[in-house]
Amino acid sequence: MANDKIALRDSILFPALKTIFKLLIFLLLVCLVFIIGIFVGYILLGGGSIWEVFNQDTWFHIFNFIK
Predict the structure, then answer these.
(1) What is the C-alpha to C-alpha distance for residues 2 and 19, in angstroms, rounded to an integer?
(2) Which residues cross the membrane (predicted)?
């Protein structure tokens, strides 16, 4: 049984799973920081309401303003 754990750690599968796990954690943190940035920028600095952030018309307005 102990040899099975050593074989799993030495195989190519374990480093690949470890890399995928790190990538998923990174993407989760990026999404979390993006959502926090939206809240800080739009609600606290911009004075908008919390539900306007998720409104589709708000995002169309922002993208049209950037163009």
Answers:
(1) 24
(2) 20-45
